Amino acid sequence: MTPLPHALTFAAGAVYSPRWRVAALVTARLARRGILSYLKRKVLAIQDGTYLLVNATRALFTPPRYYVDTLMQLDVIGVASLPIVLLVGFFTGAVLALQSYRSLERFGEVSILGQMVGLSVVLELGPVLTAVVMAGRNSSGMASELGSMLVSEQVDALRAMGTDPLRKLVAPRLYATVIMLPLLTILADFVALVGGYFIALTIAHLTTSQYWSSFYQNIDYHDITQGLVKPVIFALVVALVGCYFGLHTTGGTEGVGRSTTQAVVVSIVLVIVLDFLITQFLIGIGFA
Amino acid sequence: MQQTDIPPAQESPDQASIELRGVSLAFDEKRVLQDISFYVPHGGTAVLLGVSGSGKSVLLKLILGLLKPDSGSILVEGADIAPLSEAELNLVRKRMGIVFQEGALFDSMSVYENVSYRLREEGSLEEEVIEQRVRQVLGFVELEEAIYKVPAELSGGMRRRVAIARAVISQPCIMLYDSPTAGLDPVTAHTINALIAKMRDVQHVTSIVVTHRVQDALMLSGFVYSTEEQGLRPVTSNNGGGHAAEQTQFLVLKDAGIYFRGYRQEILAARDPYLRRFVR
What's the predicted TM-score (pTM) here? Predict the structure, then answer.
């Protein structure tokens, strides 16, 4: 029994008449059942997600391996995401430089613009924005593709023909995302710095040397490592959430739409929450 | 439950290709199947009839090992598949083929890739041999010209025929059909039924056919495939191939159990209002 329903029962029972007390008891029981059912679903989701991760990782070391599928996913997830990642990266860097310039100008510290843009991009904006773009583009794509396959019994057909859907469908998507997200993050970081450089040159009137030296003199090994650890973890989240919701689709084509939306929302929320937790952890161990 | 003189499944017949013993399954609190027992002999055919949601497709998935029963045993060629792992089940599934309700063809692959999928997965044959086998089974379902098309370019009937070709390419000894004629016009449905009869009478595979069209069941029990005529002909006392057709079992599912078990004559002669509604 959970404390909340007890409190509800007691409060309701004390205040209202016997008829209302019965109603309160029933409500409390339903609430208790609802909370338990909700918690059970969440625990099961974590269990299923862990199962996907463990089995997809195990598939890396044992045959059969689906190289062609993995190559195709590298193309779909990585190469096809490149234009949007570069676009988002460039304008994020530019707008960050623009806003930072306005603040720094008040203190006469415009010369550290490169450092400010660089650290913000490498530590936070690059990994998070790239992961959010990937979640919107690829997590949803995985959920809708796998969901459609599930409701049209293609996943059952795979199993009927002796293929493990985890190896054939989940593992290639997971590997491709883990490989491509850090690479795309590096590219996004670079074009964001270029975007900042463009503003530094045209609006802040800094020289090329001032902007870039301010950046690379103030960034160290820990910052770069932190900026590369995050995308690997975000990649696991984006791929697993997409595959999880796709393979747990129920309710036909309407369910596919629901899974797609859930995959995007959950993966973006997880990326942002995990970003905070990872940063806090790295600061806690003295890494950052 | 309506019963006939068919030996009960509990007798564990040696000749059973598929046997279910007291199989029950529930999804959450909804009971889907309760204490289901029946068997299909080698080369025999069972037709599962029932309204939508009566558990027919679930039963096929249980036989294929895609779902696990809550209780009971499912014997395929004498081996209980209920406790087997996924890897062990894959070995059992090699002896089985299934045609799903809408075909379940892989959208991203051509007809050739769909049909050859199983052989390529096994990885033991050269590509030329695989292509030869694919052309052979597509010839069997009379669809050789569609070999390089993608599923989106095929009609509903063609998709089912490709699904049959994909299922039979590994020469299974058991075939499971999940509503193979659902949503098809009568002419195409007849073609599909003829293919099912051809598998039964020419290849002598054990078949379980799920349908809610009693016409399919009556056709499978009343006709045999003639290789000379390349089509179906009615069962008569003169044609020797009629045995498998005449021995077609009818199983009607209702309220999570088997409501009726019998042969063609018995279901046609049944006075039970529920069965009459079915046969009419």
Answer: 0.84
| Residue A17 confidence (pLDDT) | 66
Mean pLDDT, to the nearest integer, of A135-163? 95
Coil/strand/helix, residue A132:
helix
Interface list for A 171-210 with B (CB within 8 A): none
> If DSSP codes are grouped into helix, strand and coil, which group holds residue B228?
coil
Please say whether the beta carbons of B202 and B227 come within 8 A. Answer: yes
The torsion defined by the Cα of B211, B213, B219 and B222, in degrees rounded to 10, comes to 90
Do strands B96-99 and B231-234 pair parallel, antiparallel, or not at all (unpaired)? Answer: unpaired
B41 prior amide bond cis, ω within 30:
no
**Mean per-residue pLDDT of chain A:** 90
Of B177, B170, B181, nearest to B203 (Cα)? Answer: B170
Q: What is the mean pLDDT of chain B?
A: 87
Distance CA B143, CA B162 (A): 8
Can you tell me the distance from the alpha carbon of B106 to that of A186, in angstroms, rounded to the nearest whole number? 36
The contacts of residue B154 (CB under 8 Å, 6+ apart) are: B105, B111, B146, B162
Q: At A1, is the pLDDT very low, low, confident or very high (cuts 50, 70, 90)?
A: very low
Of A100, A99, A86, A129, the residue nearest A227 (C-alpha):
A129
Residue A203 in tokens: 């609006």
Domains, chain B, ranges and CATH? Answer: 9-279 (3.40.50.300)
ipTM of this complex: 0.87
Burial of A146: CB neighbours in 10 Å, binned 0-12, 13-18, 19+: buried
Stretch (H or E) spanning B24: strand B16-27
Give the number of other Cβ atoms within 10 Å of residue B234's Cβ: 11
User: Position A191: which residue type?
Assistant: V
Interface with A, mutate which of B95, B102, B169 (most A CBs under 10 A)? B102
| Mean local confidence (pLDDT), B201-226 | 89
Cα–Cα distance for residue pair A214/B259, rounded to 1 Å: 82
Mean pLDDT on A32-47: 86
CB crowding A199-235: b at 16 or more within 10 Å, else e? bbeeebebeeebbbebbeeebeeeeeebbbbbbebbb
Q: How far is CA A66 from the centre of its chain?
A: 25
Mutate to test the interface with A, among B28, B66, B162, B166 (most CBs of A within 10 A): B66
State the nearest Cα–Cα gap between B173 and chain A, in angstroms. 14
Predicted pLDDT of residue B1: 47
Question: Hey, is A134 helix, strand or coil?
Answer: helix
